[in-house]
Design goal:
225 residues; alpha/beta; Rossmann fold; 3-stranded mixed beta sheet; 9 helices; 11 strands; 32% helix
């Protein structure tokens, strides 16, 4: 249940992030959008599940007739994800990255638990090889209604691995910053409506870079039709 306390986040998290996790107020506008949009019986995919905040939230919303598939490649994060979801029978966790290919990939580690990525970073320089898969492969075996993607700049790779699923036009919430994602969003805007999440968890259509960000360096955007 959402109201249960998550296993405390690691020391690398800021005190505010820890508090928001424990109070179920992490990324509050996105949290409210989940609550406003996900309904009983849906299938939800959490790409970059981290320690399971949105996985657990989705689990409570889809209920016993729904399913949540959570992907997390980092070993330490996956250990916490497993502990935080072990009692949730509608959650299926995979220690895997999601990308444009099915196989293995180089995964670049950061000092911060939420900053690991399939894109090379300069924060630490460590790297490991992890399993990876595509959302189109998952789509072969189950329908998918709602997707959350938070993969620290590698969102383009995830989208490149789901051309068939995109044709179905599920709701997709994804992290956006102009350095990594602007070409992706410009291309998606040709075939999908792009929205930002506003206070209260509702959507507002956006067509320009300025309106997407509202002065922020990064944000969550939504594909929804």
């Amino acid at each position: 249940m959402v109201g249960e306390i998550l296993i405390p986040p690691p020391s690398s998290c800021t005190w505010q992030t820890k508090l928001n996790h424990l109070r179920n107020r992490y990324e509050i506008d996105t949290t409210n959008y989940f609550k406003n949009t996900i309904t009983s019986g849906m299938t939800v995919v959490d790409v970059g599940a981290n320690l399971g905040y949105f996985t657990r939230l989705a689990s409570s919303l889809v209920g016993p007739t729904g399913n949540v598939y959570a992907f997390e490649p980092d070993a330490n994060n996956f250990r916490l994800l497993k502990k935080n979801t072990k009692h949730l029978t509608n959650v299926h966790i995979m220690q895997s990255a999601v990308s444009d290919t099915d196989g293995t990939a180089t995964f670049y580690l950061s000092r911060k638990m939420g900053m690991h990525s399939l894109l090379e970073n300069k924060d630490e320089g460590r790297q490991v090889v992890v399993p990876c898969t595509t959302l189109d492969k998952l789509f072969q075996s189950t329908d998918i209604h709602f997707i959350k993607i938070d993969v620290e700049g590698a969102e383009t790779l995830v989208f490149q691995g789901m051309p068939k699923l995109l044709q179905r036009k599920p709701v997709i919430v994804f992290e956006y910053n102009p350095w990594d994602s602007k070409p992706l969003v410009d291309e998606l805007a040709k075939t999908h409506s792009i929205f930002k999440i506003v206070p209260g968890g509702t959507l507002e259509k956006t067509t320009t870079e300025e309106s997407r960000l509202d002065g922020k360096k990064g944000t969550n955007l939504v594909l929804a039709d």
